[in-house]
Amino acid sequence: MGANEWKCGGTCFFVKSGAATYLVTAAHVWDEVENCGAEFFPLLLPVNGAEPVDISKWRIISKSAFLDIAVVEVPTSFQLASIGKDAITYNSSPETRVALDESVFFMGYPGEHRTADSLKIILRMTPCMDFVTSVNDRAFFMSDDFRERQSSSFDPGVSDIKSFGGLSGSPMLVVRDGIFNLVGIFIEGGFQDEGIHSPFKGAHFDFINADGSLDELRIPY
Questions:
Q1: The overall pTM is greater than 0.70
Q2: What values do phi and psi take at 50, rounded to 5?
Q3: Alpha-carbon distance 114 to 13, whole Å?
Q4: Residues paired with residue 20 on neighbouring β-strands, in sequence order
Q5: pLDDT tens, 13-24?
Q6: Is the Cβ–Cβ distance between 168 and 28 less than 8 Å?
Q7: Between the chain's N and C termini, which has fewer beta carbons within 10 Å?
């Protein structure tokens, strides 16, 4: 299979809690890559300048379609340093939840900015930042009601983004006292025809317990 035969994908990140390490993404990303074709396709984790890692057999710890969160166990035999990656240290509780008007930063790899040939795939990172405009028990939102967002690119060949598909699963962070705090998982980029002005939606990270399970008692079904 060539790199240009990829079927679907999203963004993920790693979290370290004690001796365990987890891969976190959006539930719809994990479901999509598991069901993107009638025949089996390996689930690959791209690595900068090296062979991708097949994570098809990594064990899923918890998943909620309602929250749109999926947590996957990274095998103890696998070292993130071997692919030049690191993990965010787990530090979450209901008290760390994002608040109205906080500025949230997230970054991921949108599908429309990916290019590939038979040997390699180029994934262009897209960072985004905006203020939280509303928060509820299930998620938080960033709406550009006054169309104030602006975009720029280091690559003149890359145009303004039209769809945020592929960014799902990105880590969402706020800066408090000079330190990045993980507060959410990007799960939706709103209306496709709005482009950079699309409303953003994040799932609260604090639903994930330190052991990778979800806090079922607090999920607002």
A1: yes
A2: -145, 175
A3: 18
A4: 17
A5: 999 999 999 999
A6: yes
A7: C
CA distance 149 to 169: 22
pLDDT digits (tens, 9 = 90+) for 69-78: 999 999 999 9
**Domain ranges (residues) in the chain:** 3-218
Cα–Cα distance, 51 to 45 (Å, whole number):
9
Task: Give one DSSP letter per residue of the chain, joined into a string.
Answer: --GGG-------EEEEETTEEEEEE-HHHHHHHHSSSSS----EEEETTEEEEE-TTPPEEEEETTTTEEEEEPPTT--GGGGT---EEP---GGG---TT-EEEEEE--GGGEEE-SS-EEE--EEEEEE--EE-SSEEEE--TT-------SSTT----S--TT-TT-EEEEEETTEEEEEEEEEE---GGGGGG--EEEEEGGGB-TTS-B-GGG---
pLDDT in tens, 121-170: 777 788 999 999 999 999 999 999 888 998 877 776 676 777 777 889 99
Assigned architecture for domain 3-218: Beta Barrel (2.40)
Q: Is the dihedral of CA 49, 155, 194, 149 positive or negative?
A: positive
pLDDT in tens, 163-198: 777 889 999 999 999 999 999 999 998 666 688 888
Sign of the dihedral defined by the CA atoms of residues 144, 220, 22, 96, in that order: positive
Q: Which amino acid is at 35?
A: N
Question: Which tokens is 87 given?
Answer: 């993990």
